[in-house]
Amino acid sequence: MTDRLKGKVAIITGGVAGIGLGIAECYVREGAKVVITANHNVEGGKQAVERFGAENALFVQQDVAVEADWKKVVDATIEKFGKLDVLVNNAGIGGGGQPIEEMPLDAWNKTMSVNLTGNFLGVKAGINAMKQTNNGHGSIINVSSVAGLVGLPMAPDYSATKGGTRLLTHAVALSLAQRKIDIRVNSVHPGWIDTNIIPEAYRDAILQTIPVGRFGEPKDIGEICVYLGSEESKYANGAEFTVDGGVRA
């Protein structure tokens, strides 16, 4: 299937590897122009643009926790592609991976700044850009996690940010709808996706917890994001989409 996103322009944070790259691949396949960002993986960004073609993609280095970087990304998007239709808040980090009583405050704050403050800044920037360039129309997709639905014992900081993203999504969706602003906001909750975020030492044990018996692929998240970025999902708002191989069933 092609052209489900034809004519649309999307920003995908953390879009140069893992889930973000899977989303970008699906978006370009469906006809979207994409602006992909990353903070550290600059080479990955350049390679993705070469792969997609400069007419279809732009890479901008970004720290999602810095508001000035959001202005830089939005300005670059509008300069190259003229508008913003879709924002995918995907960038995130895994957290400290330790009991909360042993977690340093700076580790907690780092996870909060990237995973939750970054999403707040993205939602804010995305809404303003859509108002400015797209007649207040668009779709915002916040990539949360199954850890935003149920706590992960050794990831209290990560779980807190993903749960926060879930309710941020609900609150913003309601606020926009009640003010008759035609920007939809939904969250996607991936389960265990086969990326380098999965510790090698725990892969076999994790696999045993997945009912369908395999890890997900980045494009599994990309496909649901295609739906949410397209007009097919025009009545989906403030909703949660879980893609986890049956873990939460």
TrEMBL record:
<dbReference type="InterPro" id="IPR002347">
    <property type="entry name" value="SDR_fam"/>
</dbReference>
<comment type="similarity">
    <text>Belongs to the short-chain dehydrogenases/reductases (SDR) family.</text>
</comment>
<keyword id="KW-0560">Oxidoreductase</keyword>
<dbReference type="InterPro" id="IPR036291">
    <property type="entry name" value="NAD(P)-bd_dom_sf"/>
</dbReference>
<protein>
    <submittedName>
        <fullName>3-beta-hydroxysteroid dehydrogenase</fullName>
    </submittedName>
</protein>
<dbReference type="Pfam" id="PF13561">
    <property type="entry name" value="adh_short_C2"/>
</dbReference>
<dbReference type="GO" id="GO:0008206">
    <property type="term" value="P:bile acid metabolic process"/>
</dbReference>
<dbReference type="InterPro" id="IPR020904">
    <property type="entry name" value="Sc_DH/Rdtase_CS"/>
</dbReference>
<dbReference type="GO" id="GO:0016616">
    <property type="term" value="F:oxidoreductase activity, acting on the CH-OH group of donors, NAD or NADP as acceptor"/>
</dbReference>
